[in-house]
Amino acid sequence: MQAVVTLAGEGTRMLPWTRGPRKEFLPLFDRGEGGGPVLKPVAHLVVETLVRAGADRFTLVVQPKDREFVRGYFAVDRRLLARHRDHEERLTETRRFYRTLEGLRFHYAVQPRPAGFGDAVLRSRPFVGDAPFLLQAGDAVLLEPQRGHVFGAMARLLERERLDGVLLVRRVSDPRRYGVIEGTPGPRFEGIRRLDVTTLVEKPEHPRTHWAATAAYVFRPSLFAALAAFRRAARPRELELTDGIRTLIDRGGRVSALVLEARWGEWRSVGSPDGFVRALDRSRRRAARPPVRHPNG
Minimal CA–CA distance to 52: which of 167, 184, 146, 164? Predict the structure, then answer.
């Protein structure tokens, strides 16, 4: 299955850090193969999650200056393994990740300048083609009891009901800061609460619900046509994904959302200093827990 990961944001809320390493490569904790905690970049965790959900072809959207660094990270570096062969115990997680990478195919779409999340997604169109695709922003992570389960359920719902899109939403106390979903309750899917989306409003002054979109989605390529149509009609300075989703619905597309409740996992962004600190702490706590089996229904 195809997957798109956006890594091209400016990261202005994280300056001056983001004048150097990208926020998507900030470290979070994970449980290592031996059971102890290890550090992995956020983008690394995102790719592993999408692989567990069934992705094997990736389009990474990057800025021109970051392309070679990102390409290098998601490639097998045999010279690194050779240099550290006297410390095999330090290479366990790297070797495991390299085994994963050997089964994947990567493309790199370039966003020359920041022009919105929707613009970044639209630039993946030549590589995605006519296939459904998973989509996630690379500066946030879905921490789950069973990695990849939620994305997998989203993809199965898209296929089973021939939807145009499936969003992941969560309840927040102040929805004015987010893209807010309006919709009607639908039947649970694989035990996960579901909404059928009627519209999506970006940062409304008077939100009508508390359902905030996370930056995790599954779409058919009809999204690309909706994004391009909105750009032609509105000529926005920045093209947002919410504009494309709203246009998709207005054009007759069917979009649903699954609700992220605590038993399925939690969504953590590293897009701000406070967000990064919270994500680091939560990932550390989760990495220290013993493995648990995926919760039923």
Answer: 146
**In sequence order, what are the residues at sequence separation of 6 or more whose Cβ sits closer than 8 angstroms to the Cβ of residue 107?**
57, 58, 59, 60, 127
Please name each of the domains of the chain with its CATH number: 2-288 (3.90.550.10)
Rounded CA-CA distance 120/227 in Å is: 11
DSSP 124-183: THHHHTTS-EEEEETTEEEE-SSTTHHHHHHHHHHHHTT-SEEEEEEE-S-GGGSEEEEE
118: left (phi over 0), alpha (psi -120 to 50) or beta: alpha
Dihedrals phi, psi of 257, to nearest 5 degrees: -135, 140
| First-to-last C-alpha distance (Å) of the chain | 25
SS3 257: strand
The 3-state DSSP composition of the chain as helix, strand, coil percent (nearest 5) reads 40, 30, 35
Asked if the model's pLDDT at residue 293 lies above 60, the reply is no
Give the pLDDT confidence of 270-289 residue by residue, as tens digits.
999 999 999 999 999 999 88
The residues facing 266 across adjacent strands are 143
Q: Closest Cα to residue 151, out of 45, 34, 271?
A: 45
pTM for the complete prediction? 0.93
Count of residues in the chain: 297
